[in-house]
Design a protein that fits this description.
Helix content: 25-40%
Distance between the termini: 20 Å
Oligomer: single chain
Number of helices: 12
Number of strands: 15
Shape: globular
Radius of gyration: 19 Å
Largest sheet: 7 strands, mixed
Strand content: 25-35%
Length: about 325
């Protein structure tokens, strides 16, 4: 079979190599999956660079979420068991990590439903307790993680403010359903959000960026607001001033979705059922902005790493729907 492999750490387009390899052999408790589509995530770039919290042994295949097919023909979504990632014709996954693919979504959309939407659901509903009528601010609202949070926020009945970088991404954020869109390239984010909220700020702030975005979040948290720390795609890990959180009476809430797979896997299944229902009634639908063949995976990972994409980029294999 063909699979992308990383033999040394570095930039994705420099270290990912497409090679002929043997099909992976499932271990006890694992299943073999034929990959139909693999979603490209920012963690794939971090894996290539050796900067992710998990460092699989070299060589490894990146690709952390897929839509695939079991040997008995079931269409499923899964997080592959590294070092056998999803940018390959076949992969393996732990049986517990395999979930039925929603019928309402095609293979590329289904592959993109899992990590980003689970992160959004756990963040907004489990950690921040977002309520209908509240205001949700989403940084990088046109990106893969942000676009999921926008859709989930709208489905929950929130007013959603999206912060983006550039006119093209602003148009995408409006298409996703943002009530207010702020272009950080041309607008003062803090002033624009304060104007949009009558000076109150946002009840929940979804931050997958860190750095300057977090500094803005601290200025924009409403009374009893919750800042959700989801990731640091901007490359800078902030150091919060806890005295500021005390004086303004807001919460800083961390989210590591992967922990639920071991700490509370039943809740992951419950979340998937909720997401499947939302997809069935059209309340959420992953925005797949680009579909590339397996040969284009390295370039796609590099493009996502550089922040040059909107929504999701999916690697689609032959036979996908």
């Amino acid at each position: 079979m063909q699979a992308w492999q990383v033999h040394e750490n570095g930039e994705p387009d420099e270290v990912m190599r497409l090679a002929e390899t043997e099909r992976p052999t499932p271990r006890e408790g694992q299943v073999l999956l034929r990959v139909r589509a693999a979603n490209v995530n920012f963690p794939d770039a971090l894996l290539c660079r050796g900067q992710y919290q998990v460092r699989p042994p070299l060589p490894f295949t990146p690709g952390v979420e897929i839509c695939g097919e079991t040997e008995d023909g079931r269409r499923v979504i899964a997080t592959p068991a590294l070092p056998q990632g999803g940018f390959a014709e076949y992969t393996v996954a732990d049986e517990a990590a395999v979930l039925p693919a929603p019928k309402a979504l095609d293979d590329a959309e289904a592959a993109a439903l899992h990590i980003g939407y689970q992160t959004g659901w756990f963040g907004l509903h489990r950690r921040a307790r977002l309520e209908a009528g509240e205001t949700l601010l989403v940084h990088a609202a046109a990106g893969g993680v942000g676009s999921a949070a926008v859709q989930l926020g709208k489905a929950a009945g929130a007013t959603v403010i999206g912060v983006v970088g550039g006119a093209e991404k602003a148009a995408v954020a409006r298409q996703l359903g943002c009530d207010v869109v702020v272009d950080r390239h041309t607008e003062d984010v803090v002033a624009a959000v304060k104007e949009a909220t009558g000076g109150r700020g946002a009840d929940v702030i979804y931050d997958p960026v860190g750095g300057e975005a977090y500094a803005q979040s601290a200025k924009l948290a409403a009374f009893e607001g919750r800042i959700l720390v989801v990731g640091f795609a901007g490359g800078t890990i902030p150091t919060p001033a806890l005295n500021h959180a005390l004086v303004k009476n807001y919460s800083i809430v961390g989210l590591h979705w992967g922990l639920y797979n071991t700490k509370n896997p039943e809740l992951v299944l419950h979340c998937h059922e909720q997401l499947t229902e939302l997809a069935a009634r059209g309340a959420i639908k992953p925005l797949v902005s680009e579909r590339v063949p397996l040969a284009g995976a390295a370039a796609a990972v590099q493009k996502v790493a550089a922040g040059r994409t909107t929504g999701r980029v999916a690697v689609v294999l032959e036979g996908a729907s």
